[in-house]
Each structure stands twice: as C-alpha cells, then as structure tokens.
Amino acid sequence: MCGIVGYWGPEKPKAIILDGLRRLEYRGYDSTGVAIFDHGQLKVERSPGKLHRLEEKLRGIEFEGPTGIGHTRWATHGEPNEKNAHPHKVGGVAIVHNGIIENYGSIQKRLVSEGVELKSETDSELIAHLLDEKLREGATLLKATLEVIPKLEGAYSILVVNEKEPDSMVAFKNGPPMLVGLGNKEVIIASDIQAVITRTPRVVYLDDGEIVTSIKGAVKFYNSKGDEIRKDVHEVKWSQAMAEKAGFDHFMQKEIFEQPQALRQTMEGHLEHEPLRVVLKSSGLTDDEYRNFKRIQLIACGTSWHAAMVAKYVFERVTGIPTDVDIASEFHYRHLTLDPQTLAVTVSQSGETADTLACLRRVKKMGLRTLSVCNVPHSSIDREAHGRIYTNAGAEIGVCSTKSFTAQIVALELLSFHMARLRKSCSDEELKNYISGLLALPGQVEICLNHDKWFREAAQSLTKFRGFLYLGRGVNFPVALEGALKLKEITYLHAEGYPSGELKHGPIALVDNNMIIVALAPKDELYEKNISNIQEVKARGGQIIAIGSGDDQGLEKISKHYLSIPEAVWSANPVLESIPIQLLSYHLAVALNRDVDQPRNLAKSVTVE
User: Fold this and answer.
1) What angle do CA 309, 311, 317 make, to 5 degrees?
2) How large a percentage of the chain has pLDDT more than 70?
3) Radius of gyration, CA atoms only, the chain
4) Residue 130 in 3-state DSSP?
5) Strand partners, 521
6) Each residue of 342-386: pLDDT tens digit?
7) Catalytic residue numbers?
8) Alpha-helical segments (H) within 451-547
9) Integer CA distances (angstroms), 170 to 17, 32, 140, in order
10) What is the pLDDT of residues 134-167, one digit of tens each?
C-alpha cells in the first residue's frame, strides 16, 4: 500500500525523503510526490509512474527549508495521474494520506455546496480542505487536527505540514501503520520501518486514535482528546544491510536464498535439545491455556492463508484439535459461532493486514484468546494479540512473499509441537521425529536451492506454454495453491492450484500438450494416489514437472522433468517443495522481462479493505 515519509532536521530534506520513498517502492505504487519547504513556502512536485520520473523533475531544484513530506500512491479514488498524486496542498497546508475515507461523499458534497473548487478526484484532497478551514480560523496545526479527526470515517494514516509552522509536522492514524524515527537531532515520520532504519534504530509506533507532533525536533504524543500521553521507544534490530540486494539481481531472488538462515532464526530460542522438544519462549499464553483449547481458528490472507492451510493438516494430526482456516476478508463478515475455548491465530507477514487485523479485533470482542504469527515486532496485529510468535525472517522487500511463507509454516509447526507436548497427544518418539525434521530443514533447503540453475536454463523454453496447473494432495495441496499464486503474481501467466484428486471433477479438461503440470509428489501416505493422478495427466499430453523425494525412478519415468527434494518427514515436505516453485516463478518472470520486485497492481501489505 502507499508509502509516507516526512523529515525535519539539519540535512536537506529532498535527498532523505527520496531515499525513504525508494526504500518503500516494494510496497507497490503508481505515482509519487513531495512537498518541501523552500524559503518559508511549500513547494510541491508530483509525477505519475515510478520514482525515477519524480527524481528527474526534481533534478537541479534546491529547497531551502528543514521540513518536507513525500508519498508513493497506490490509487484507490481517482486514476493514477499527476493531479491525483500526493501531496495535496490547499492554502498553506499539505498532506499525504494512506487509506480510504469512507464518508468522502458527504464531505465532498458539503465542500462543493460551499463553493470549494476541488483539483483532484481523490478522497485525500478533502482532508487538506478540512484542515485548511480550521487553520484559516486561527487554529494551530494540532488543534486543527483534533477538530478534523472526528469528521473522518474509514482507515487512514495522515501526515501534515503547514506553511505557518515550517518546523512542524503532525501525523495521526486510524488503521494503516505510522511510526516515528528519533534520530540525531532529526525526526522521520513514515509508514514503514524501511524508510527509517537507515537513519535511526529508535522508533515509536503510533496506535489508532493517536497523534504525534514534531516541533523543531521536540516530539510529543497525544490521544484523540488532545491529552498528552507517554509512548515507549523501541530499538529496531533490522540492519540497513538486510534491506540491500547484496549482489543479487532482485530482492525476491535474495530472499529465496536467505531461507536457510530465516528458518534457523524462526526456530532459534524455541528448541531444547536435552531432551529434544519445543518450548515456546514468551509467547504470551500459558501452558494451561494451550492444554485446554478445544478448537483452533487460523485467520490469514494470501500467502499467509496458504501457510495456515498447511498448518491445519499438522495441528489436526499432532494435537488432535479440530482446526479451521479462513480467509480474513470472508471471515470478518460471517455470522460466527465460535466456542470461547477456541484459540484464534492470526497470520500476517507485516502485522498490518487490514482484513486480518479487523478479524483479530472481532474475535477479541467475542472473548477468544488470540495469538499472532508475524514478522514485524510492534506491528498492529502483534501489539493487539494476547500472545505472539515471531517468524524473525528479517526484512522481506519483494512484494512476492517467499521466506515469510516458509518461516510461517515453521512457526506454526513449532506451535503445534509445543501444544502436542503439553497435551500428550503425540508420543515422545513421534515428536522427536517431527522436531528433527525441522532441525534438518535449513540444510535441506540449501540442497533444494541447487535447482536454481535448472530453472534459470529452462525458463526461456517455459515461456511458450499457455497455462500452468499445480497439483498436490494432503499437506502438499496448499503448496500447489501457493505455487500458482506465485506464478500469477510476477509472471502474469494463468495458473491454478488443485488437489490432485479433484482433477476428474473438471480441471482435467484443461490438460493438453500446451499445459505445464507441476506435480508435488513426495513420498508420503498419499504417494500412490498421487502417482495415479499424474498418470491421468500424462495420458492426456500434459507436460509434467514433478517434484518428488530423493531418487524416485518411477516418478521420474512418467515425468518430462523430475526435480528431487531431500527425503523428509511429511510435515517438512511443504517447506522443501516451496523452493523449486519459487525458483520457477522467479526465473520465468525474469525470462518474460517482468518487474519482479514490484509486480503490477500489487502492494506488499494490504492495509485497507
């Protein structure tokens, strides 16, 4: 979703704001802009398209002032053009806005009836008009903000500057993230830690309904009533190097290859070796609670939903607890009948996914205990859940999730093995086998990464096929869904994921010699049934890329291409299978000359419904 950066300090704001916007490009956007003080006035420059077009407009332009704001926009109201790009300036006030103002229609109607001339098609411009009204009445920027907030309905994070207060910034939020970086005699206000981490590790996160003011670097926080409040300062552990490509061509490629280390970091601190067992550290829920839950409800979106689907198979098998998985955008609007002894687990890489956050708040009101699985400490979902497990995968910049998916699977399996030990639903020997499978994963993933060369060489020949069908059974079926999603996201080719057993119920009609079939067939209890389904595809001319366990000559014989993953316990196979499907999508996208890290129409984290 859109990116916000604001700066006050001794250095030139232009360079710092542009650098911050560049680090937010991964979120997805269609236009950019800045508003920077120059000799006491706000100078606004905006451009549709990528950031380099704005940089070209700004080349040679100098700004003499300490304060500025910038924005990367992902269009919601109004098409992506210059007039709809942010910042929006009205009178002496300029704003940047993430989110959607749901009551924009009534605000717009009132302003137009009073003779206000609107210059854009956006809901965001209306906020600037409301603030300008109050400022012209003599209010300070803080007082104007306090009077405007009750007039806004929807999800928003907003950063404001005013020509009458050139050393000031005011920001407020209700939904999308906003944070404050406290640097050396400088303040950076942004929507994402990536825009801040190169300047300072000291960060304060705004909660909904809160306001921050920065006046000559003095930062104060207020609630929606205008009462000053105290906020904790957090030391962010991500380093600048984690956000750089480190010699790889794309962030996605780098993040695929970071998975061995990411998985080690996910497991770190949660495993005891004598005896070998999972003990979740500081998850926020008690052992007695884990023993007594009668149901598990997993809630997520996109790739995180696929990780949760994998976890369903594991939870039900090792804990014996009935487990449901729901897409957050559907779950939120259902008429729910949930047992109060249900554990609600929300899964989100960013911890800011709007639909998932709304579900978390709903189940909390229903009295359920909640646990978050996310990658970003102090994010909204992390802060609001009763308990938490961090994936600790490090910064993920590519829009197309890779290491976050496998880290989420491992984090959820850690939870299931922890609960199984406490509930005695698995024998010690079974649990030891499962945990040994987790410990082996980083090394086995490194072996799977050797398929990179094959996909790099095969990618050009794969571009001629008209469609891709991913098949899997049992715990491998969600990986088939994830493989199809990855391909769609960054190649723009058609792909579908199906349970292998559903072939004869319709999808087999698609199969001919122009269709690639990616068959996930590791050796497990469903292996023989999987082989039968693959034979059906082969008989109809499907071009089969099979992913199986070890030296499987039978599977290799019926496949056009056979790729081997190490033999592993069934619960580890989804992680190992994920590596070749990620490499397939990546190299095919490169061969098609797609924008791998910033695919069209997509944002890294969806912070509005």
Assistant:
1) 115
2) 95
3) 25
4) helix
5) 548
6) 999 999 998 888 899 999 999 999 999 999 999 988 888 999 999
7) 2, 604
8) 452-462, 477-491, 527-539
9) 16, 20, 11
10) 999 999 999 999 999 999 998 889 999 999 999 9
Q: Count H helices, E strands: the chain?
A: 19, 27
Q: What is the pLDDT of residues 408-462, one digit of tens each?
A: 999 999 999 999 999 999 999 999 999 999 999 998 998 999 898 899 888 888 8
| CATH topology identical between 3-236 and 251-446 | no
Map out the domains of the chain as residue ranges: 3-236, 251-446, 451-591
Residue with tokens 């749901």: 102
C-alpha 9/C-alpha 66 separation (Å) is 6
The pLDDT tens digits for 67-114 are: 999 999 877 767 778 899 999 999 999 999 988 888 989 999 999 999
Whole-angstrom distance, CA of residue 41 vs CA of residue 53 = 23
d(CA 172, CA 179): 10
Distance CA 200, CA 184 (A): 8
> Measured between alpha carbons, how far is 50 from 111 in angstroms, rounded to an integer?
32
| Dihedral of alpha carbons 464, 532, 527, 549, sign | negative
pLDDT of residue 601: 66
CATH superfamily to which 3-236 belongs: Aminohydrolase, N-terminal nucleophile (Ntn) domain (3.60.20.10)
The helix/strand/coil state of 118 is: coil
CA distances from 13 to 392, 456, 506, 517 (A): 32, 42, 58, 52
CB atoms within 10 A of CB 41: 12
Q: Which residue has the tokens 């250095």?
A: 11
Q: How is 193-254 classified by DSSP, letter by letter?
A: GGGTTTT-SEEEEPPTT-EEEEETTEEEEE-TTS-EE----EE----GGGGS-TT-SSHHHH
Residue with tokens 């499962």: 434
Does the domain spanning 451-591 belong to CATH 3.40.50.10490?
yes
Q: CA 559 to CA 572: how far, in whole Å? A: 23
**Token pair belonging to 348:** 């989100």
3-state SS string for 441-465: HHHHHHHHHHHHHHHHHHHHHHCCC
Q: Which fold has domain 251-446?
A: Rossmann fold (3.40.50)
DSSP lists the bridge partners of residue 174 as 156
Q: Do the beta carbons of residue 58 and residue 17 sit within 8 Å? A: no
Residue 41 has pLDDT above 60, yes or no: yes
